[in-house]
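In response to reviewer comment 3 from the previous cycle, which asked for concrete evidence that the modeling workflow produces usable outputs, we include below a single protein chain processed end to end. The sequence was submitted unchanged, and the resulting structure tokens are shown without manual editing.
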Amino acid sequence: MKNFHILLTAILVISSCTGTSETGSITSNSTEDTNLSSNIETGGATLTQASIIAHDFVKDNFASDCDFDDLDIRGEAVDAVQGRFKVLQKFTSSKYGSEQEYVYKIYIQYYGGEWEDKNNWDYGELTIENTSTQQQYHFNGTMKELDLQASSLGKKTIAGVEFKESFVKEVIIYSTPKQIEIEKLRAVAQELKGNPKTIMFYIDSEIEGGEEYASVIGNNFFYHPLNKIESLK
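The workflow returned the following structure tokens.
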């Protein structure tokens, strides 16, 4: 059973967990990611270990015959989230007849314990792309559902914008029916800067599936659709 306090780390800076801030082909974008390094470590796990567990998630969702290229693993530790990684790796599979090459991108979370045990891991979004046709296949783990397990605090108006306010441990979640434009959200972030708690902005889960698109951590404002990070003054 995953410890709820450890699950809290899965909530911090979801900017890098859901993958919603990245668009286009994984194949064309993958060269921008950090190459595999034994120095990439967070929360007691390494990128190498994350890729090994990711193989199981890919096989579970896509095909059991996946053959992974372990000489070219790419990825990074997600900033400010202990035990979270983004991993990209090529593999081959004959799922659709002839053998074809694919690349997967996954956001994967380690919760502690024996790293070899897949039950100590979970993932948010898994995207698999055919490197020739660029056709994509999307799968989702339960990490996002855990992120949205929050206690409702009612409504709150900040900088003229009304939010539904929820709270999980040290994380405050503000949600609205639609995504707030960046200029309005920047004004909201200015009022919230310096808060010791992590603050996240969501599209209401009952309307749009609960997509998180921005966050405030200390004096930093993260706006994920533009991959934009600003220092609040």
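Residues 4-143 form one domain. We consider this sufficient to address the reviewer's concern, and the full set will be provided in the supplementary archive.
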